[in-house]
């Protein structure tokens, strides 16, 4: 089992023990006893970076293990690990912005059902509930600008089902295993690029700049 350190810290470098390293179609599959690398999943791209100086190109979860795909073999034993800061920050900005869009949609009587927080294709999907209000890009843009300007701090807690919850300031938290900015001002500028409805599902597309 790999201990997911990214649940509890924003640190991007530490030491870890290489438990196994095996050749695979995607390079060398490396399993550590603990990791700061967030795997792809939950609507968020995985981290990249280095393990002992070896480039990590992909990170995925497999059961209780987190597998890091390295371009070269990594020796067993202690290594230093380093997450790419630029990619992590972009993924965190996109994910946190998606949470804000979720809150805004819910204020209009919509139910957030899916978040896809990938660069260039980020969107949040909603299901209209009874009595929901009409929502458009302009209104979402105004609301998200206000929230980012408020620069609310992030908080995390565990609910009664032992699920990790992530929220900002007075906003209700969402169950989430992803990475997020420490405070909303770190998101920077968000542009709502479109609001579309198809087969009863409303999709709000966005990007961070």
Automatic annotation (TrEMBL):
Tagged with keyword Glycoprotein: no
Domain of life, per lineage: Bacteria
Gene Ontology molecular function: any one: alanine-tRNA ligase activity
Keywords from the named record: Ligase, Metal-binding, Zinc
Cofactors (names): Zn(2+)
Domain Threonyl/alanyl tRNA synthetase SAD: 164-198
EC identifiers of the protein: 6.1.1.7
InterPro entries xref list: Alanyl-tRNA_Editing_Enzymes, Thr/Ala-tRNA-synth_IIc_edit, Transl_B-barrel_sf, tRNA_SAD
GO biological process: tRNA aminoacylation
Class of this enzyme: ligase
Alphabetical list of Pfam families matching this protein: tRNA_SAD (PF07973)
Protein name: Alanine--tRNA ligase
Organism the protein comes from: Budvicia aquatica
């Amino acid at each position: 089992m790999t201990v997911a350190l990214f649940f509890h810290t924003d640190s991007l470098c530490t030491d870890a023990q290489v438990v196994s390293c095996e050749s695979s179609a995607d390079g060398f599959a490396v399993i550590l006893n603990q990791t700061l690398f967030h795997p792809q999943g939950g609507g968020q791209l995985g981290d990249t970076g280095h393990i002992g100086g070896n480039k990590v190109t992909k990170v995925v979860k497999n059961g209780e293990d987190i597998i890091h795909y390295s371009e070269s073999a990594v020796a067993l034993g202690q290594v230093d690990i380093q997450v790419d800061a630029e990619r992590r920050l972009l993924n965190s900005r996109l994910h946190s912005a998606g949470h804000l869009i979720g809150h805004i949609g819910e204020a209009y009587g919509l139910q957030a059902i899916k978040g896809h927080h990938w660069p260039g294709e980020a969107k949040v999907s909603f299901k209209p509930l009874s009595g929901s209000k009409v929502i458009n890009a302009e209104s979402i843009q105004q609301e998200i600008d206000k929230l980012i300007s408020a620069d609310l701090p992030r908080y995390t807690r565990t609910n009664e089902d032992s699920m990790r919850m992530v929220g900002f300031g007075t906003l209700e938290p969402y169950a989430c295993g992803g990475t997020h900015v420490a405070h909303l001002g770190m998101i920077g500028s968000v542009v709502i690029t479109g609001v579309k409805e198809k087969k009863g599902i409303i999709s709000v597309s966005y990007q961070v700049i």
